[in-house]
Amino acid sequence: MKLKEELKKSKMILKQGPFCATCQKTNKQEDDSKDKGGGQSIKNCSRCSVVKYCSKKCQREDYTNGHKEACAKIEKHKKEADDLTEKLKAVPVGNNKVENAFETRVGRFSEQMASSIGGKDFQPKEYLKAKFGLAQQIMALAEKHEDRDLYERLCRDLLEIKRLDHTDVLGVRSILPFVLLILGRDNDCYGFIKWHLSRDENYDWSNPPNASKGNPIILQFLI
Length: 223
Hints:
Shape: flat
Structural class: mainly alpha
């Protein structure tokens, strides 16, 4: 009982809904301010579209307080992922045919894809790296601002990476349980860890689970 109380105390109190990353002002407070003849609406950062600000003053303050570097990294990883997305949706495979890796390679994104163009190999893994780099930046901002919406986004991004690469070469399984706990999804965290620990040495990690069999908890995440 005492341990349960300690765990409750240790849980992070997350802020939810649009709020200014600098002064913590919420949309409701902005609406109240407008009713009194002032205030501006809370808007996304125009460059990364991840954090939000209520004014240019707050944006400048956060920009010089570390967001400048994070913003540039987010923009870089986003561009990399977007460029690779277009390529992986139409990989030439011969006979005037193309393959959409997001349909045919789910669970196997850490493998190379042979292309018919000059023997060139496409690397879906590079897409995973770009998405993982973006997720790392989202995680840092979620922690910094204790933002529930960013933790939810982080959770979705990590699950998508895990879905695309069942072998989990980037180690999503070592991060996702903590994100689930922070979000209060204790049962999901337990189910995710239990499924991974219950795989024996004969389990084929290169073969993604079929939706018709296996543990429904992990399939909820991966399929």
